[in-house]
Design brief:
Elements (H helix, E strand, L loop, with lengths): L3 H4 L2 H4 L7 H4 L27 H11 L6 E4 L2 H12 L6 E6 L4 H8 L3 E6 L8 H7 L5 E7 L12 H6 L4 E5 L21 E6 L12 E4 L2 H10 L7 H12 L1 H23 L4 E4 L6 E6 L2 H10 L5 E2 L7 E5 L3 H12 L4
Parallel strand pairs: 2-3, 2-4, 4-5, 5-6
Antiparallel strand pairs: 1-7, 6-7, 8-9, 9-11, 10-11
The protein binds pyridoxal-5'-phosphate (PLP).
The site of pyridoxal-5'-phosphate has 13 residues, from helix 5.
Length: 341
């Protein structure tokens, strides 16, 4: 069955982590002459390396124990840490289902790890008969599943089937889960010891600039993530900004409701355009559409300083539109109504 110590790279298993001054003494009262800091100023002290206050707050909001939470400098840092902990460069492999988030591929390449890609089917779901045989490869250590998926906007049905049929680590990237009606897998980390659930404050919480990503997983994996991360990976201003925003749950709810309403309006209006061939269902704060000529639509919008994402090279003739403020969405729709591609 699942054996974490055989999955972790031997050098990481044996790693003696850097011990910072703030690890040895973390109280807030006292005279601090232990970290070679400048005693003057407002940002003169190193931040809490384990972000205890922030984790406490997230624990309440997400119903996950603090010992099961790891925080990264964005989820992008956690994706990189997963490669560094579990994949021996030039030897081990990872797998993902495409089209999907581009960072898995970039991070794999940086770490010199082969990323096996399997195409999602026509409805952007996992074809299990194609996926299952690949999961038995002994050099396959990591599987990345983005659900709801970027850029296809749908939730993936087979996530738990993959987790149950793989002896390595499954990373489920739930960056858009706040916009979906589906349950997060964060409540199943006790059931699945090989599961790492990623979420972020960058999307629904509106904190992309603060770079706070979350991993929810068992305490043993959290301890490996802690060993490998840079000691002070989340700055004090960013920890403070995150804490302040997490207090404002009313604002979070209001913004989310507005964005979900705007998504409905956007879909209704896009349906009226005769060059829009397909509008894919969305569990996210963006919409993927297929048009007759994606490059033409994209260029016409860019000329008017309206920037959307051209995914033509990833999904033929597809465009990805992020839901913005009501006024921004209205400007986009007017521009789209005046285009003849
Ligand atoms: C936007 C996004 C993220 C967010 O990454 P951060 O580093 O936390 O900002 C992660 N995964 C996916 C699929 C995304 O689209």
């Amino acid at each position: 069955m699942f054996n974490l110590t055989t999955l972790v790279r031997p050098n990481i298993l044996n790693l003696e982590p850097y011990s910072s001054a703030r690890d040895e003494f973390s109280g807030t009262e006292g005279i601090f002459l232990d970290a070679n800091e400048n005693p003057y100023g407002n940002l003169n002290r190193y931040p809490d390396p384990f972000q205890k206050q922030l984790k406490q707050k997230l624990s309440e909001i997400k119903s996950v124990a603090t010992e099961n939470i790891f925080l990264g400098n964005g989820s992008d840092e956690i994706i990189d840490l997963c490669f560094r902990i579990f994949c021996e460069p030039g030897k081990d492999k990872a797998l993902t289902f495409v089209p999907t988030y581009g960072m898995y591929e970039v991070s794999a390449a940086i770490n010199n790890v082969e990323l096996v890609t399997v195409n999602l089917d026509k409805t952007f779901q996992i074809n299990m008969s194609e996926a299952l045989p690949l999961l038995t490869d002994a050099s396959l250590k990591l599987v990345f599943i983005c659900s709801p998926n970027n850029p296809t906007a749908n939730s993936i049905d087979a996530v738990e089937a993959i987790i149950q049929n793989f002896k390595g680590i499954v990373v489920v990237d739930e960056a858009y889960i706040d916009f979906s009606d589906r349950e997060s897998l964060s409540q199943k980390i006790a059931q699945y010891p090989n599961l790492i659930v990623l979420q972020t404050l960058s999307k629904a919480w509106g904190l992309a600039a603060a770079r706070v990503g979350m991993a929810f997983t068992n305490a043993a994996i959290v301890s490996f993530l802690n060993k490998v991360k840079p000691p002070y990976n989340i700055s004090a201003p960013n920890q403070i900004a995150a804490l302040a925003t997490l207090e404002k749950t009313d604002e979070y709810d209001r913004q989310k409701e507005t964005l979900l309403n705007e998504r409905v309006i956007m879909i209704q209006q896009l349906r009226q355009l005769d060059y829009v061939r397909k509008i894919y269902p969305s569990d996210t704060n963006f919409i993927l559409i297929e048009v007759t000529n994606a490059d033409a639509v994209y260029n016409a919008l860019t000329a008017q300083n309206i920037i959307i994402r051209n995914r033509n090279k990833v999904v033929k003739n597809c465009l990805r539109i992020t839901i913005g403020r009501p006024h921004e969405n209205a400007v986009l729709l007017t521009a789209l109504q005046n285009i003849q591609p």
